[in-house]
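Lab notebook: predicted structure, single chain.

Context: the supervisor wants predicted structures on file for every construct in the current expression panel, including those that have not yet been purified. This is the next one on the list. No modifications to the sequence; it matches the entry in the shared construct table.
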Amino acid sequence: MEPILSLGRRKTAIARITLTEGTGEIIVNGRDGQEYFPVTMQQFKLQQPFKLTETVGKYDVIATVDGGGITGQVDAVRLGIARALVKIDAEHKPKLKAEELMTRDPRAVERKKFGRKKARKRYQFSKR
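Prediction complete. Output recorded below exactly as produced.
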């Protein structure tokens, strides 16, 4: 099987995924996935597409992630893995779509406006 390439994005994080047949090893930026994402919830998110499609331990993942924070990066990798699994077998798509793993999360930080402290927060009002 030739490597399957896919892309995942979340906030400002971009993940480039290479999926190959293997033993279920996940490598993120040259490090083990469990070392790069040490929190249990993040490790669950990495495995979620494989568990839903019942392909745990069948594919190796090599991910290169740029930008964003840890949460954005793990969600970007998860989206990339889900897209790669759909490229391999289109019958996985309904399962992944039902759990909203095929949708890019469009939420991002709102820009700061002039005359305000943050995007929406205002300076304290003084009547006198």
